[in-house]
Amino acid sequence: MQRDNSDKKRNPFFVMTKNDEAKPLVSLVVPIYNEGEHILANLQTILKSAQTQWYDLELIAVDDGSRDESQKQISMAATHDKRIRLISFTRNFGKEAAIQAGLADARGAVAVILDSDLQHPPELIPRMISIWRQGILIVEARKQDRRNECLTNRLYAKLFYSVFQYFSGFDINGQSDFKLIDRKVIDTYLSLPEKVRFFRGLVHWTSYPSIQIYFLVPQRVGGTSRWSRIKLLRYAINNITNFSSAPLQIVSIIGFLTLIIGTLFGAISLFQKINGHSIDGFTTVILLLVIIGGAILMGLGIIGHYIARLYDEVKARPAYIIK
Ligand code: UDP
Ligand code: MG
Hints:
Elements: H1 5-10, E1 14-16, E2 22-32, H2 39-50, E3 56-63, H3 70-80, E4 84-88, H4 95-105, E5 110-113, H5 125-132, E6 138-143, H6 151-168, E7 175-182, H7 183-191, H8 199-206, E8 210-215, H9 229-243, H10 246-274, H11 281-315
Parallel strand pairs: 2-3, 2-5, 3-4, 6-8
Antiparallel strand pairs: 1-2, 5-7, 6-7
Helix pairs in contact: 2-3, 6-9, 10-11
The chain binds uridine-5'-diphosphate and magnesium ion.
Uridine-5'-diphosphate binds near residues 31, 32, 92, 95 and 226.
């Protein structure tokens, strides 16, 4: 990014070197949950691949309530490398909370958010930073394809992104949480009052100048995905309702359609009764009961979901608690 030198001297996010050159500080935010013994090596690989002479690095490792040796491993990494800082949660609050906590702690002029399992190639970071230096505030890394994932996961992701786009109007297909965001975006993100967050969607929503780059997702280093199908489904539903109230309108549409069909049905039955050959009652009544009952319960479910979301936001409990 083009900034004049006097501006850099005043800016707390730039570190002055001995020969009075301003080097930006880049914060790497890494959420970690039960990553086991390979986390130490992964953090070292991330720092090694990301470091260049053009900027300074700090790495904020957010331990999202791991119950294995992750925290011990990160502490060990932090004692060997002063660029690493550990934040520990009291329990598992989820990746979104971990990203938020990492960003709140970041001191850099820019932050890069990436997974700890090396599925977000850290070699791309220098390229992302050189794009940022040209004045782009967001660099979004998109998955080039999902070849490494199973068919169900691919279909599931496709369905989620299509529904998300349909309801919210934002196309975030193939996007990941692997992103570079400028200080301006970090501050905007942190100033949002909402508790339940969808990082990917919200960064896109800020609509600051952005560029997309593509990457091939490598195999996970150690372990398996920390997301169960149920956790993913809940995450998907929350994210869609986070960005759109359209499902509530669908309830009205279903109600309206049921009313029209009901009126038609009623008119036909009445007409047939007047003409002396009324339709067989029992099946019709059961059918109507089941259809209308289903529609009402579904409507209540959707409304209930939004009320639950309101309840969570109104309670305004913190998104995470640091140990
Ligand atoms: N993660 C986390 N909290 C969770 C689940 C995952 O901080 O509750 C971290 C995890 O340690 C990893 C990143 O989020 O660094 C992505 O998780 P994972 O690799 O399991 O997800 P996937 O690659 O399957 O999307
Ligand atoms: Mg992964």
